[in-house]
Design brief:
By secondary structure, the protein is α/β, with parallel strands linked by helices. The chain has one domain: Rossmann fold (3-Layer(aba) Sandwich). Helix content is 24%, strand content 20%. An 8-stranded mixed β-sheet has the order 3-2-1-6-9-10-11-12. Strands 4-5 form a two-stranded antiparallel sheet. The longest helix is centred in the N-terminal third of the chain and has 23 residues. It starts with 6 loop residues before the first helix and ends in a 32-residue tail after the last strand.
Length: 239
Amino acid sequence: MDDAYPSEQHAALMAWRKALRSELLARREAIAADRLQVWRKAIDRHLQYGFPGLARGVLAFCWPIRKEYDARHLLRRLRDRGATTALPVVIAPRAPLLFREWHPGVDIALGKLDIPYPKAGAALVPDTVLLPMNGFDGEGYRLGYGGGFFDRTLEALADKRPAVIGVTYELAAIETIRPQPWDRPVDYVVTERGVYQRIDGKLAFLGAPSDAKGSSLSSPVCYADEIAPGYFGEDPAER
């Protein structure tokens, strides 16, 4: 990365992205919890109806932080229909992530930022990744937290690259992240508005698949208020 980008230019880019990231995080964290619940349920529906294949294979996701979209509600339903759900594990700085199976009851540890990860288990190769985004641009590039873990992971999985679905809110849309050679775009973006697909290097809005008639999926998504406190492994007293 350092050889591919002059150090002064790289430093300027990182400073610009850091400032943009802070602005986008502040924008997201200012949204009221009830509004985020409405958006989360909309994203759940778009994923459920737009991607019926998520109920098969290994589905990786990220434990939500800082008011990110919370996939755990939808994943409970998908596990009931056969999905294997997995969380990323940081092995070392600047190294690709690996993925281990997670479901409520799996023994977890806390990593950086107190984000849970499975303590043990076989490494899995995901078929699909639900990837949170602090920002996304019209070419499908993602602004994350600056560690570069997912870019390195997708490069390492080039021989069996999973489908990558970026999940976020419309307020995260930006003009550009000024993508560089090491950045990897997502295949789809799903927001409360609906589904975007990256086609010929640009995001195309496909609509809201939950509005479609005749879906083969008849079972409703199970929401958090229908789940016993502590189901996700959190402290029930903090709910």
